[in-house]
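User: Structure tokens for both sequences below?

Assistant:
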Amino acid sequence: MKHTYYPQGTCSIQIDVDVDDQGIINQVEFLGGCHGNLQGISMLVRGMHAQDAISKLQGIRCGYKSTSCPDQLAQALREALGKSAN
């Protein structure tokens, strides 16, 4: 299932995630933000169970900000999993 999320408090302005019926991440794409780092994160989580990625990424902060692109990815995945449960 494809899901679009609009992050808050980060340089990225959109996160597109594709999670299959088993909760496995097929693809992640960020719009905006630090391109190289976000490409790396996207590749690292591909094939990972979304719940595992959420556990690893949630709560990460970017400098003085209360969130980060990885933290917002965790939020996007949580939202995607919630939609697939409905």
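Moving on to the next sequence.
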Amino acid sequence: MAASEPFTPGTPPLFTVNESVAESLTGHRPVLLNLLDGFVDGGQVIKTISETVLEHCEHEPLVVFDHDQVHDYRSRRPLITFDTDRFTAAEDISIVLHKVRDGHGEEFLLLAGPEPDARWELMLSGLQHLVERFDVRLTVSAHGVPMAVPHTRPITMTVHGTDPELIGDQRAWIDRVEIPASLSALLEFRLGEQDRAAHGFAVHVPHYIAQSRFPSAAVAAMESIALVSGLALPIDELRPAMATTLTEIENEAQQSEEVQRVVAELERQYDAFMERDADLPSADEIGAEFERFLRNRGSDDDPQGF
């Protein structure tokens, strides 16, 4: 039996809970993996992780949100297929909180779908309510950010969260910087105000391939999520695609002396920083990478992104 839960009297409910699925979570204190697809996701990290988990793990819908209340159709129009003389298919927009079973049989929650365009405060209230209702012990997010790093070096990431013990001695890659907010970032902030554990990984994706899918970044994110949460995620399912993509990028780079020079300079900067001989990226540099990424969004057809 499903139950709807409105948050403002006289307004339609924001979401519907599958109560029979909810009952099975009683006493579990699950991890919540927040993979709302925000406006910045270099290398399609969010999409790759979400698709991989839902494809290879047993799951069922726990909460279905009324996306019609929060989606701006004129800003992000769903795709529709026209074939010869008729429309044959339409893209389905949905925001769903799934109950998922990992490789060891542990149940966790996965929030997937497009980031809401409107009514963020209502959405945040709803998500905080669900975190409390299901007694979520840890909320984890991940996404990709374009950075001046080479694809030939180990993946790095900016680690953030509400619990300093979870962050530990992770290397800091940037100093204080103001960036456009995402709903996921605001959720982490609000959960921190409630003394709830929330953690996130901003995976550094080479800026020259940030528009394309970069499985190496998704693998790095999933490994970090597994380490902090204890979940057994289907990481190995992505390793063949990771190897293939790296080979494609290398082959493309070998055809351009200019690209080789760029990669070589990025390698020099990366190695110097890892030895703590280089300065942290400035706020202006980080902001410029964000702006560049946003200007060039939407070019998913080029597998290499050069």
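User: Anything stand out in the second?

Assistant: Confidence is low (pLDDT under 50) at residues 298-306.
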